[in-house]
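In the previous chapter we treated chains in isolation. Here, by contrast, the input contains three separate entities that must be folded as one system, with a combined length of 1165 residues.
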Amino acid sequence: MHPVLRTVLQRLGLGVLTLIVVSVVIFSSLELLPGGYAENILGQGATPETVANFKKELGLDRPAYVRYFEWIGGVAQGDFGASYSGVGGTNKREVAHVIAPRLYNTFFLAILTAIIAVPLSLFLGVMAALYRNSWYDRIVNAVTLTTIAAPEFLIAYLLMLLFALKWKWFPSLSTVGETTPFFEHLYRAALPAITLTLVIVAHMMRMTRAALINLLASPYMEMAKLKGVPAREAIVKHALPNAWAPIATVVAFNLAYLVVGVVIVEVVYVYPGIGQLMVDSVSSRDMPVVQACALIFAATYILLNLSADVVSIITNPRLLHPK
Amino acid sequence: MNDTQDKLQAALTAAARGRITRREFTQLALASGVTLATANTMFAGAARAEPKKGGTFKIGVGHGATTDSMDPGLYPDQFTGTALWGTLANSLTEIDADGNVVGDIAESYEPSDGAKKWAFKVRKGATFHNGKPVTAEDVVASILHHTKEDSKSAAKSLLKDMTSIKADGAETVIFELSGGNADFPYTVSDYHMPIMPKNEDGSVDWQSGIRTGAYKLEKFEPGVSATFTKNENYYKTGKGWFDRVEFLSIKDVAARTNALIAGEINYMDRCDLKTLDMLKSNPDIEVQEITGYGHQVYVMDVRAKPFDDVNVRLALKHSLNREEIIEKVFLGHGQPGNDNPIAPTVKFAVEPQPKHTYDPEKAKAFLKKAGLDKLTVDLSVADAAFAGAVDSALLWKENAKACGIDLNVIREPDDSYWDNVWLKKAFVASYWSGRPTVDWMMTTAYAAGAAWNDTFWANPRFNELLVAARSETDEAKRAGMYAEMQQLLHDDGGLINLMFNSYVEAHGKNLGHNKVAANWQLDGMRIAERWWFTS
Amino acid sequence: MTAQAPDIRSVRARRTFWENAKRTLASAPFSAWFGMVIILIYAICAIFAPWIAPYGEADVVGKAYLPASAEFWLGTDQIGRDLFSRLIYGARNTIGIALITTMLSFLVGGTLGVLTALMRGWLDQGVSRIVDAFLAIPVLIFSLMLLAVFGKVQFFMEHRWVLLVIILGLLDSTRVFRLARATAMNVVVMDYVESAKLRGENMRWIIFREVLPNILPPLITEFGLRFCFVFLTISALSFLGVGMQPPTADWGSMLAENKTLINFPAVGFPWIRKPFYPAIAIALLTVAINFVVDWVLHKTSGLRDEH
């Protein structure tokens, strides 16, 4: 079997195992959380009687393991169940229906950010490696370290202050709906995308620089230098192809972050993404939605890591054509 | 009033409605003997103060969750309450800006049999958004939605005294109660009980969003937004001025403030108190503060030692420096309580004397009366009771030292506070969102044996008065009874009322409104039908 | 290694530790020096906070939001505590917690990583699968859930920082585990580890003498970054309302508490909006630590072309 195909199949198999473990972990954490969906929704109006009626309607009066196996049985057949918030009515709120628009928004923002951030950080990283220890390198280093060190919400508020309140280039609210036209969506998602770019560029750029510098000490780079290959060409033609593996790993890590970790940016800009949906659902204990979000996050993580590994195999002839 | 003045008044009204031009108005005004300059000012003033049609009203609300449902029995907070009730729907009655109950879907209502039987007459001309007129059957179905056997509605407990409901013809609904209740019209003003269209099978259609209100539902995205368009056939006149209304759920207070400053929303609730002064200095923004019915309290279980001694209770009531805590923890946004749960804006509210204030000498005197030199008590608190409960308790601990009281503040976990601490421990922090009537508040929290009587106070005279006042239809007699009850609770009860909290909200200066209601945030949650744009 | 290696070792052996340190420090570039000085200042602040800070950590000493003055060097915060004093105490709490958290994560993650790389087999499979699952759950949301679950335990209610340290430390250790295992895998197949095994050295020798020194550089880099990320995670948790217990001063929570002030300009000198003080404190420390880490990395990378 081809090594790429073998890796992919093997990792996908392990991925399914990981997903099952994730679902067990999330389910048991939800069970351990104090209070339940009924108590949370009814709040002050909760009486033992109404809570009991509510639980019965949701099926929450049955033991936890029964509910878990019922749920995972449904998932195995492609049915993620319905959100508790729609139970009892004729308009059942299917999890897929609840999640789909949020997922679209999240991917929209993630892709927009990636389009800006990945090329930018590669460029900055290569330049920093090329002019290492120069003033350019030091300044880029200090600036990117500062953006790493600033909490996301601080960057977000700062950009909002400048771009939305002072100069009024972009709106401060990024609320988008299912009917928002593409270009308006782009306009509204601009500030969150810039914020996220600032957050992730530093990490990717530093890793690119480090991976390249690491290679500069290797004999073939010395050789290239001795042959008189210009520094720029040496880095781009000789070092970069060998640095793809670690760069791909860190890019995958940051892309996964763009999907799973942007809760705070969503809160600040009021962008209806999937992170906020999951936090909401956790606080109201809406198990089917929490589980579906967790599985999407985990699958994203697994697939992105897998692609990073595929990149390292493809860019490494020794792995691509094993003995 | 003479004829010319009448004409001028009519002209002013016309100007306000935008029906006559400035020139026409000036001619009329000059004819009635007013100078040109005055006429101009009058015209401008009238045109500003009186409601204008049009515009898109955008409201940023600090609540809203993806689990929000169209089912009114499950409305949890301001987002669903204001958008899906106050904007979209009507109950049988409503509470006006002065705290009085007035008819809404019900044109009129009559008690009989000692207020045990209530007949509500459905307003003629009230229609649903689909054009169907509202009938008594719809009202019955809407109320039964909450009381049926397997109901999970939060309003179920409100209606527990209702023994039957039936339609009498197309226009009249008859409620029968297990005991007389002169305040029953207040009960049905609750935001959980909008009137909805009845289905063929007798159930009620809560799913479609077809209601009776000033605005029709365009789109509802739970946890994100709700948009509405004007209902041209709204049965109320002089209400519902906007063309469109949009609610946005903006949970982060900084983001909400930014959106208001940037002009992306016109109104925000729950302002950040820390930066309020700075927000007030913005020339385009008006901050409004209303003392509501909600109150933040500490409650003692009067059955438990040492709180079973009224002198210990009085000592504790005098050991709390309410003013200082409001100043420090709530930055001055609240009104000190006087151990009376009835907000001053509620009908029949009184200020019992002597006013309970911080007085270490009095506190010590009461301790002595109880036969104690020193007192050590545990106080269980968590910010789940109300934001600032822990800080307030810590300040109280400092206050109480001077009174010879050692207050041992125990911080309880937030998550299970209402399940494991409230009603379980003897001395705890608590919160009441308040009720629009004395009876409702007292029945819920201070009647002997009530499920939520968190002080376990059972005063025979108080309970006698409570029942008697409920069916008393003579207002003066009722007022006397309620005054005595509030005094009793103040002197003897286990309630230590720290403060009535304020609703602090902000809006653009281009919004006009009448007197703002105090029963809920957002002008009694009915801001969308009550407010308008002035420009 | 070239033929000169034994020579260098014999020369080094004659120098004392301090001489060595001096030589190494003398060759440090400006950025590394800058970093070390900053770290030293922070360490002094953290250790001697009660003696340096003019006021107590939680003392209300003036009105809210006073501008900077001779009395309050950086002004006061939202309830009238001295901001400068809180920054100093913040150094103690923040750095302390970050250090303990990071050490916990490296202890757990590093040990497991090296062990699984050496032992392989079912232990490796089991631990790796579990770690994979935990890595696949978003840290922020998962720690929110865990804080809610364990926050009601009496001990953690009184010592919330312990809970934060344990949760963040353990969640972080999954990342350290991955790194340690991956790098250790490359080392354990080396001939010198094989020969140590054949020599019959025990496990401790192999781990501490053969494997650990050779996987240290990437671990040090990771330590620098992870350490700084702990502040950020705590500040994000504070932003979501579940961070440190007030009135403890830590930079992350101070930032989150004052977030609404960002919109409003500061009054009077030095015209820095108050939320930025803790942010600057965090940023400066992050830059400093990573400058030092970069230098250490550079020294160990073997790259000799100084520009």
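The CA atoms of residues 374 and 404 of chain B lie 5 Å apart. The two ends of chain B are 32 Å apart (CA to CA). Compare these points with the single-chain example from earlier in the chapter.
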